[in-house]
Specification:
Radius of gyration: 16 Å
Number of helices: 10
Number of domains: 1
Number of strands: 0
Shape: globular
Order of helices and strands: HHHHHHHHHH
Helix content: over 70%
Length: 244
């Protein structure tokens, strides 16, 4: 597959994920892993793209008035150091694919609306509970190379702690800080080259797709059909990765 085709795939993933406030790391990882890229290349690339796309999503959803700092910070405070720790854990390739496949199932369920529409919020978690959840999600995020938004947003919606739009805004910020922590840890421990020619092309593609997707998700409409299509594609990717 040539560079342009891969860039277009990454842009599409960024668009669809950003429309629900996600950075797209699980999608980038699925695409690159299925194309034969190794985890040492996949993890830092996914985290790098995550930074840019989640930032765009956060800006759009925050401008629309959906971000809640009081709900966000307990999750983030605990998740960031654990994401840095997780990034230093080297998993066997097969184990890596299995855990990624499970994480993709959460992304599929979120895209297909399995956790409810989040029309209204009912309550808020205690700080202790939020810290525990944040730490757990941060560790898994660091090990796999994702920001954790696909794991956090289902929790927020299932327990009624946020509306769908608030979940998107909080997840975008959560993804950004965890991606930053994980990427920094990888850069220090492995000396990752973050801005080579390939990365610049992929960043540009993800930025274009992510900016458009975040605007559509925050300001316009839900893109239900597109999310359903992505959900089905990711489901097949999850099955393929699990049995690879």
């Amino acid at each position: 597959m040539n560079e342009v085709t891969l860039a277009l795939l990454l842009a599409l993933v960024a668009f669809l994920y950003a429309s629900v406030g996600h950075g797209g790391a699980s999608g980038y990882i699925a695409v690159m892993t299925l194309l034969g890229f190794l985890p040492d290349m996949v993890r830092p690339t996914a985290l790098l793209l995550n930074l840019f796309v989640s930032a765009m999503a956060f800006v759009q959803f925050t401008r629309a008035g959906h971000f809640r700092w009081k709900l966000f910070w307990p999750f983030a405070v605990a998740s960031m150091p654990m994401a840095a720790v997780g990034a230093r854990i080297q998993l066997d390739t097969i184990v890596y694919k299995r855990i990624l496949a499970i994480c993709l199932v959460f992304a599929v369920a979120r895209l297909l609306g399995a956790f409810g529409g989040g029309e209204e919020r009912r309550n808020s978690p205690t700080h202790y509970l939020a810290l525990c959840i944040g730490a757990s999600l941060g560790l898994v995020s660091g090990m796999i190379g994702i920001g954790g938004g696909i794991l956090l947003s289902p929790v927020l919606l299932l327990f009624g702690w946020s509306t769908a739009k608030e979940s998107a805004a909080i997840s975008a910020a959560f993804i950004f800080v965890n991606s930053l922590a994980g990427l920094g840890s990888l850069a220090i421990s492995q000396g990752v080259d973050l801005f080579n020619g390939q990365h610049l092309l992929w960043i540009g593609a993800a930025l274009i797709g992510g900016t458009a997707g975040a605007y559509v998700g925050a300001q316009r409409f839900s893109q239900v059909r597109l999310r359903q299509v992505l959900g089905v594609v990711l489901l097949f990717a999850s099955i393929k990765l699990f049995f690879a």
